[in-house]
Specification:
Blueprint: H1 5-13, E1 14-16, E2 24-27, E3 31-35, H2 36-49, E4 58-62, H3 72-88, E5 91-93, H4 100-107, E6 114-117, E7 131-134, H5 137-144, E8 149-152, E9 155-162, H6 171-182, E10 190-195, H7 204-213, E11 221-223, H8 228-236, E12 256-261, E13 268-270, E14 278-280, E15 291-294, H9 302-312, E16 322-325, H10 330-338, H11 341-348, E17 351-352, E18 372-375, E19 391-394, H12 397-406, E20 435-436, E21 463-471, H13 478-481, H14 495-498, H15 510-516, E22 520-523, H16 536-543, E23 546-551, H17 556-564, E24 568-572, E25 586-590, E26 598-602, E27 607-612, H18 617-624, H19 628-635
Helix pairs in contact: 2-3, 2-5, 6-7, 9-11, 9-12
The structure holds alpha-methylisocitric acid and iron/sulfur cluster.
Alpha-methylisocitric acid (MIC) binds next to helix 2.
Length: 636
């Protein structure tokens, strides 16, 4: 049989189910990763499973999101994570070592293996030929406990890259072009597999920029073949022993094919407030820029920052622009420090931050009121920067550097004919002294007052009733449901406290109303819950008493998180019925037989609304048990 790359990796890992698009399959997970903002919950859940040591080939816990430490909370969480990692056989990447996805690419990713991460940009490792997926913390905890990961067998899309990028056009423009064509919903239920001769011109970190932002398409994941370039990258990380060639069979079949002629691409930019709102940079004339932020797991590799340093060298950042740079990892930071590039950036007026997510998740460097912020990041959702009135754009490092110098949105091709030519070092600077391996010694787990116990949900009753607490539109992100930023992120291990902020960017009174009404329903449009994997977007509404979410459709990770925390996710059988429900309507739903026909009663309007769902019998059993933890424990 001729298999594509995705099918090959899944076939090697499949535990149950048939490899037919749309069917439930479960696969064995080789590696897991967590980051601190989702990790505290993931490890509390792992602990609750009562398994002494992880059963994966490798599990890594990173600290990269919450590092501002404006109070004791972040530091408490770090200590908890460090000690619990040591106790259960998990590698611990200390704060300062870098962003999980960049460090994992450098030090841990293995072509052909599977990776499950409690972060939606886990597919970054697809740049190395891994099948890497984002999930909620609970699914990652279960994978650490040796349980398979359940997913709908995705459709596989071949993205055929033809030709070679022209000067000043970069990998970021390839993924922005896909977002322009396919939108933030275009990848739901699909894996994007890259092929064609264009692949040969892209280094592993460039491939990783593309697979990273495949998350914005809503894709299950994205993957590149593991070839000579992959081998060379692993060799430069002194990890060539982990290399294996993996590619699709020559006559492999695909569900869809998309072709991109790289020679025709131009510098692109995503306008506020969605990553698919893409146009050519040259179309935006005379837009004044106030902030430029370079970094994040999308664009903070050695090549990215060297490119920026070369563009800035000997020049000065525009007097009205604040330029902030966060290198992706200690390795990158160290190398650009030693070769003087960091000094070129500082001399030009750049503000250097530590190797973390930083401004990407609103941890500091919030832009000024109404500011235009150009970011090399992957998400420009409303309010995510920390300033609700700010206008965030997403671009390549080349475009961002040009904007920083000119003070307005600038096509980098206007900087001259010759883009910086970056020579890649034969070997990277390797020093893993900020990665602490697990120990066999006895470890006491440290729990500061910020670590609150896990809230537990009751079993699903036969009838769900209550008010519509909120009605929202299409493409609601988990940043809308459970915002992040410097004020809220430190509360990730304290569910009662963080719950006060549920939907706060949309409706400041939501939490209060939910509590006063004793819980109820949320009604949404299409692609509800896209974006971040944060399970707090299910866990905190569950804590507030949300019992069911009724939408036109869900994004993959959020749907799984709702099931994991015992919130019933259902859809309108007819999308037109969306307009027949309003906030405050009283609803009632008999769920005693979830496998039968479901009719939602709108008591206020006196109407009956047919309801459907995509729940498997296992999902139904999980919901009945009040969520995955209860289900896993009762099955253990
Ligand atoms: C994000 O980019 O939104 C985050 C912060 O990395 C999230 C995880 C989180 O909310 O902790 C993600 O992408 O999953
Ligand atoms: Fe961190 Fe931003 Fe990447 Fe999320 S998208 S992991 S916040 S750098």
């Amino acid at each position: 049989m001729n298999l594509n790359l995705t099918q090959k990796i899944i076939k090697k890992h499949v535990v149950s189910g048939e490899m037919k698009a749309g069917e439930k399959v479960s696969i064995k997970i080789d590696q897991t990763l967590t980051q601190d903002a989702t990790g505290t919950m993931a490890y509390l859940q792992f602990e609750a499973l009562g398994i002494p040591r992880v059963k994966t080939k490798l599990s890594v816990s990173y600290i990269d999101h919450n590092t501002l430490q404006t109070g004791f909370e972040n530091a408490d969480d770090h200590l908890f994570l460090q000690t619990i990692a040591a106790k259960h056989g998990i590698y611990f990447s200390r704060p300062g070592n870098g962003i999980c996805h960049q460090v994992h690419l450098e030090r841990f990713g293995v072509p052909g293996q599977t990776l499950l991460g409690s972060d939606s940009h886990t597919p970054t490792q697809g740049g190395l030929g891994m099948l890497a997926m984002g999930a909620g913390g609970l699914d990652v905890a279960l994978a650490m406990g040796g349980q398979p990961f359940f997913l709908n067998m995705p459709k596989v899309v071949l993205v055929k890259l033809n030709g070679k990028l022209r000067p000043w056009v970069s990998a970021k423009d390839i993924i922005l072009e896909l977002l322009r064509r396919l939108t933030v919903k275009g990848g739901v239920g699909k894996v994007f597999e890259y092929g064609g001769e264009g692949v040969k011109h892209l280094s592993v970190p460039e491939r990783a920029t593309i697979t990273n932002m495949g998350a914005e398409l809503g894709a299950t994941t994205s993957v590149f073949p593991s070839d000579k370039i992959t081998k060379q990258f692993l060799a430069s990380e002194k990890r060539v022993k982990h290399w294996a060639a993996i590619e699709a069979d020559t006559s492999a079949e695909y569900d869809e094919v998309v072709e991109i002629d790289l020679r025709k691409l131009e510098p692109l930019i995503a306008k506020p407030h969605l990553p698919d709102n893409v146009c050519k940079v040259k179309e935006l004339k005379n837009i004044k820029v106030n902030q430029v932020a370079i970094g994040s797991c999308t664009n903070s590799s050695y090549k990215d920052l060297m490119t920026v340093a070369k563009i800035l060298k000997g020049k000065t950042v525009h007097p009205e622009v604040s330029l902030v740079i966060s290198p992706g990892s200690k390795q990158v930071f160290n190398m650009i420090s030693k070769n003087g590039a960091i000094s070129d950036i500082i001399e030009a007026g750049g503000r250097i931050m530590e190797s973390t997510c930083g401004p990407c998740i609103g941890m500091g460097q919030a832009p000024s009121t109404n500011a235009v912020s150009i970011r090399t990041f992957n998400r420009n959702f409303l309010g995510r920067s920390g300033t609700k009135s700010a206008q965030s754009y997403l671009s390549s490092p080349e475009v961002a550097a040009a904007c920083a110098l000119k003070g307005k949105i600038t096509d980098p091709r206007t900087l001259g004919n010759r883009p910086p030519n970056i020579k890649m070092p034969k070997t990277f600077d390797i020093n893993d002294n900020m990665i602490i391996p697990p120990t066999r010694k006895k470890v006491e787990v440290v729990r500061g007052p910020n670590i609150k116990p896990l809230p537990i949900k009751d079993k699903l009753s036969d009838k769900i009733s209550g008010k519509v607490l909120l009605k929202v539109e299409d493409n609601i992100t988990t940043d809308h449901i459970m915002p992040a930023g410097a004020k809220i992120l430190p509360l990730r291990s304290n569910v009662p406290a963080i719950s006060e902020y549920v939907f706060s960017v949309v409706d400041a009174d939501f939490a209060m109303r939910a509590k006063e009404s004793g819980g109820g329903f949320v009604v949404g449009g299409a692609n509800y819950g896209q974006g971040s994997s944060r399970e707090h977007a299910a866990l905190a509404p569950m804590y507030l008493g949300v019992r069911a979410v009724l939408t036109k459709s869900f994004a993959r990770i959020h749907l799984a998180n709702l099931i994991n925390f015992g919130i019933l996710p259902v859809n309108f059988a007819n999308e037109n019925d969306y307009s027949g429900i309003d906030q405050n309507d009283e609803l009632e739903l008999d769920v005693s037989n979830l496998s039968g026909n479901l009719i939602l009663k709108n008591i206020t309007k006196g109407t009956d609304i047919p309801i459907v769902h995509s729940l498997s019998s296992r999902d139904i059993a999980i919901l009945k048990a009040g969520g995955s933890l209860g289900y896993a424990k009762s099955n253990a």
